[in-house]
Amino acid sequence: MGFVKDPCGIVCVLVTYLAVIYADYVVTRWIILQTMQNSLWAPFHVVAFNTIVFLLSMAHLKAVLLDPGTVPLPQTRIDFSDLHSERNYNREHEEWTVCTRCETYRPPRAHHCRICKRCIRRMDHHCPWINNCVGERNQKYFLQFLMYVCALALYSIFLIIASWVYPCENCSTTVPETQSRMLHSVLLLLESALFGLFVIAIMVDQMHAILYDETAVEAVQQKGPYRSHRPKMALLAEVCGRGHPAMWLFPCATLNRKHHDVPLLSHDV
């Protein structure tokens, strides 16, 4: 599945990058270079802040461009006339269902997205901020994106408050520069607070969905947890990867490829 051509999603993606670029501009130009000119903390904050921006961008791009777990379409038209026959008993027993829009069988927990116009494995929801579905293959990167946005928002708020509490005595104090710095600082403070609270709410919802093994679609359908007795760490590792938990923080491919490469339509249809 390629890039989703959804106008709302494209606008949200552009707004996301504009907000991140503006935050980087204000922190670097008006906070660090204006209030930490003679401090050794200036290069540290520049490197640390831009490292978070880089990780955020990589996680977001992967969440946008990576296939969320699209169920492949059959090469030939499937005859569903024998759907309830004995021949299909095993398939029904395994909770495979039929998507009348895609005209194909789909595995358990797969749902049809009306925007992507395809069935997505373990679909949680379609997110306009990544212009893609949050599914089996990209939920890790979506969660990382939310985490980095929270970190960036908190870091921005910290630097703004620090610049107000500990002003630079040797820095330029001309009226135009002081007013510009104050205006940009207030705008960034509002942006960080609003986006930070919004993203924290989504991140908490995502963590609940992972740890209780219930996607947003399943919650709406009131199906309950899919595997209620599975350990929380095992559920988290299923999304973030089987490697060391420290690697969960980085937007790199650590998923269990063997699990994800199982053919979806290996049975005869």
From TrEMBL:
Membrane topology per record: Multi-pass membrane protein
Catalysed conversion reaction: L-cysteinyl-[protein] + hexadecanoyl-CoA = S-hexadecanoyl-L-cysteinyl-[protein] + CoA
Transmembrane regions listed in the UniProt entry: 7-28, 40-59, 145-166, 186-204
Keyword terms of this UniProt record: Acyltransferase, Membrane, Transferase, Transmembrane, Transmembrane helix
Localization annotation: Membrane
EC class of the enzyme, as a word: transferase
E.C. number(s) listed in UniProt: 2.3.1.225
Annotated ranges, domain Palmitoyltransferase DHHC: 93-222
Pfam families documented for this protein: DHHC (PF01529)
Keyword Transmembrane helix in annotation: yes
PROSITE patterns: DHHC
Main location: membrane
PANTHER family from the UniProt entry: PALMITOYLTRANSFERASE ZDHHC16
UniProt record similarity statement: Belongs to the DHHC palmitoyltransferase family.
Description of its domains: The DHHC domain is required for palmitoyltransferase activity.
Protein name listed in UniProt: Palmitoyltransferase
